[in-house]
Amino acid sequence: MNQPQLTKAGRLRLQEQLETLRGDSRHEALERVKTARKFCDFREDVTYVEAVRERERIETKIVELERLLADAVIVDEGRPDVVAFGSRVVIRELPDGNDETYRLVGELEADLAEGTISVSSPLGSGLMGGVVGQSVSIASPAGPLDFEIVRIEP
After folding, report:
1. Distance (Å, whole) CA 128 – CA 110
2. Prediction pTM value
């Protein structure tokens, strides 16, 4: 099995999420179970069943995050002159598109809404190893998309 890759910032976000789950989320879920238990008929009480399921979901997420953080490889960001894992890249769709900025990260951190894309995505893999001024062509269902690398930031 391949080890998951994370940036230092990605590891920090996952550690913070884990601490929140271990603390407040776990405590709140346990309190909901206790409260529901006081007033329920265990065979049919939807509130109790939902509280137990939520607690189980939190415990499962805690185990998943612990395992992920234990197995993850933290990848150092690359050089500022070549697109690498962790680089923030400003690209422009050719011929006359707007500039877009993305950080290249592992699959676990990728979130387009946050401006992060996976190095294994078509765009991410096409940008890897690129330099400022280079054009890259990415295959898409609608045909190739061409981009120019405008700037690389560590």
Report:
1. 15
2. 0.68
